[in-house]
Amino acid sequence: MISTKTSVGSIGVLAHHAPLLAMLDPTELRLYRTESDIVRFAQSEGYLQVGGNRALLLVEEAHEPGSLDAAEIRDRLQNAERRLDDAGEDTEKRRVAERDRRRWDAFLRIAEEG
């Protein structure tokens, strides 16, 4: 099973899932090999395609939680928040800063959980 988060909410994908195309939000991605063997990643935004009894995830970044540096992520989150404050009415700068803030906020939660 795959457990992740789409732009409309959390989703779990099992074998023989109905075809699906979804936008992914930053979150913890979980790949269940068995009920007790779970592989975890910090997943950035991207896309999920399910069809033909296969799932394809295309994401900008995926990191094992143990490889995340919480201090570095805090710095990146603060930088994204400053850029968001400075964006003003520039909608593209605002969109990029909001995307980065969501990513670094999710990654920080995952890094702190270990």
Descriptive account of the structure:
The longest helix is centred in the last third of the chain and has 23 residues, at 91-113. Helix 1 (70-86) runs antiparallel to helix 2 (91-113). Strand 6 and strand 7 form a beta hairpin. The chain has helices at 70-86, 91-113; strands spanning 2-6, 9-13, 20-24, 27-32, 38-43, 46-51, 54-59, 62-63. The mean pLDDT is 95. The strands form 2 sheets. The chain has a 5-stranded antiparallel β-sheet with strand order 2-1-4-5-8, covered by helices on one side. The protein is built from 2 helices and 8 strands; from the N terminus they run E-E-E-E-E-E-E-E-H-H.
Comma- or semicolon-separated keywords:
5-stranded antiparallel sheet, alpha+beta
Any chance you could write out the topology, listing elements then pairs?
Layout: E1 2-6, E2 9-13, E3 20-24, E4 27-32, E5 38-43, E6 46-51, E7 54-59, E8 62-63, H1 70-86, H2 91-113
Antiparallel strand pairs: 1-2, 1-4, 3-6, 4-5, 5-8, 6-7
Q: What is the helix content?
A: 25-40%
- Please state the CA-atom Rg, rounded to the nearest Å: 15 Å
Strands ordered across the widest β-sheet? 2-1-4-5-8
Task: Report on the biggest sheet.
Answer: 5 strands, antiparallel
Ranges with pLDDT <50 over ≥5 residues? none
- Strand and helix order: EEEEEEEEHH
Beta-strand proportion: 35-45%
Total beta strand runs: 8
- Name the shape in a single word: flat
Give the class from helix and strand content and strand pairing. alpha+beta
- Supply the number of helical segments: 2
Cα distance spanning the termini: 21 Å
Q: Mean pLDDT, as a whole number?
A: 95
